[in-house]
Design goal:
This protein is α+β, with helices and mostly antiparallel strands. The protein has a single domain, classed as Aminopeptidase (3-Layer(aba) Sandwich), CATH 3.40.630.30. About 30% of the residues lie in helices and about 25% in strands. The protein is built from four helices and five strands, in the order E-H-H-E-E-E-H-E-H. Strands 1-2-3-4-5 form a five-stranded mixed sheet, with helices on both faces. About 20% of the residues are buried.
């Protein structure tokens, strides 16, 4: 399916009133399939708890929680970012914890608009870089982030203990 780029994507802060819509989009985060040692149910539950907690905390200058919507008001995606401190340099930076584009927003520039908003927010805070995490099997996300200029910094590895 080919989509036309939206000419008017509006960004606004996410609020508790958005909670149910946000929760309904969480499964999109794991459509690529979980690693063998995690279940989709566990991953969705963890994401939902984290996002609900973020919404309940209200405004915080060290985080960004935004909704992308069509100018007519239909939500098309969301992004949640927090401020972290780099282990090696001690620099504060934005870390994108979650970004989801609803099916209705696919191919319309919503993901790029959300990422641009996160970069603008981070830059306005004096940050030199933005980080995010992506599962190895999420090739679609890897491709998008590569096109946006992201590079692999480190691989996090996990070993299950008997």
């Amino acid at each position: 399916m080919i989509h036309a780029m939206l000419t008017s994507i509006v960004m606004r802060p996410a609020t508790e009133a958005d909670a149910e819509w946000i929760v309904s989009q969480v499964p999109r985060l794991h459509e690529f399939g979980p690693p063998p040692w995690r279940t989709i149910e566990q991953m969705n539950a963890g994401e939902i708890a984290d996002l609900r907690g973020a919404l309940s905390r209200g405004d915080d200058p060290d985080r960004l929680f935004i909704i992308a919507q069509h100018s007519e008001g239909a939500p098309l995606g969301f992004l949640y970012a927090v401020t972290l401190t780099d282990f090696f340099t001690g620099e504060r930076h934005a870390h994108i914890g979650d970004i989801v584009v609803a099916r209705e927003g696919e191919g319309q520039g919503v993901g790029r608009a959300l990422m641009n908003a996160a970069e603008t927010w981070s830059r306005s805070r004096g940050h030199r870089f933005v980080t995010l995490s992506v599962f190895p099997d999420n090739t679609r996300a890897f491709e998008l982030y590569g096109r946006l200029g992201f590079q692999i910094d480190a691989h996090r590895m996990l070993k299950l203990l008997p």
